[in-house]
Predict the structure of protein disulfide-isomerase.
Amino acid sequence: YCCLFVSVLLALSVCVSAFVEELDDDLCDGVVLCLVCVQFYAPWCSFCKQLDPVWHQIGSELRSLGSPVNVGKSDATANTGLAKEFRVRSYPAILMKDVKYNYVGPRTKDGILDFANRVAGPLVRSLSSLQLFQHAMNRHDVLFVYIGATSPLKGNYTSVAEELIVHTYFFSASRDVLPKERDGDLKSWINRERFPNYLKIDSYTLYAMGDSGKLVLLALVGERSLCEESLRYKSLVEKVAADYREIYSRNFYFGFMEGTDYINGLVMGEVTVPSFIVVNLSNDGYFLPLGAIGTERHLLDFLNGVLDGSIQCQGGNSFDQRVGRFFYDAKVTLMPVFSQAPLLGCFLVGFPVVLAAVFCYLCCKARPTMSGYDDGLALIASSQQRRKKTSDKKSD
């Protein structure tokens, strides 16, 4: 039985591996006409090793769904020609071959599958019936639909879809319905509306939201098990996001964040959990409530205070704030080093200090030499003047 079990496992591993093709510089030309989702990895990269089992699951699932996307991977350290063609700069790098779209989302199976399916299809997918329109609305949290006949706007819409298809879906339909609000240029409008109104937010998503120009209300909760208070904070934000969408969605995104490392760096301090904060990633500013928030009314007053200016924005990206964040990040980075390896920490801090001291010493030592040189020039000049006076007297 044991031998049979091992044989089954080996057969399954071979079957799963068959869905992921190993690509090298020689095989590149043979698959150029195919849609291939490629993972570029390095043998020493720990993140690549963590992604490897997920990558084989993706290959198996795409094959079972009959997707036109093939899944491959390539050792970027060995196949430098292929890595250079795709301009690989970090590992793991996930790109779609032929169209060369770079995946920048979370390294999860669902995220990568959604990316592969989105990029493999048409840039703008046609919704030819009411049933297809409703299916798209139910399936996607955020999507964009062009409604109308061919026009210069549709050409612009297609151009934007070509650039932003890595982030969201684009559709077209024949129904005579237009979005209610479409101020500013099309790309800016899509960047503002491409996120769901309420979602779980990580540091990457929060950073990307800075391009939208909206503020983000966050419920900060613990990373692992959520206490009753953390669950209440999450539910309160979700309720306000749903019940007051028409009022606040133009100015705010809503969500929750597990862990506070990113926010600690923003405020340069330790943020308590659970808590509320409004962040403005366009200028690295943030707003904190003036008092405890226990009810929905308190949270609405907090949002209104942010909008009307009664709650002042803190932080920002001024020179003083940037210098402060630099030293805070350095302290946070070095403190674990000092606690675990004091000698290494002393070296990392002491070496730059010693270099700066030596540089200052050499500068100070060079000053007397220069002043002595200047004094010598002055003596020569005065000597020449005395000789000139002596010669003038003799001539008289």
Remarks:
- Residues 342-395 form the longest helix (54 residues).
- The chain has three domains: 16-120, 125-192, 195-317.
- The radius of gyration is 31 Å.
- Residues 1-16 have pLDDT under 50 and may be disordered.
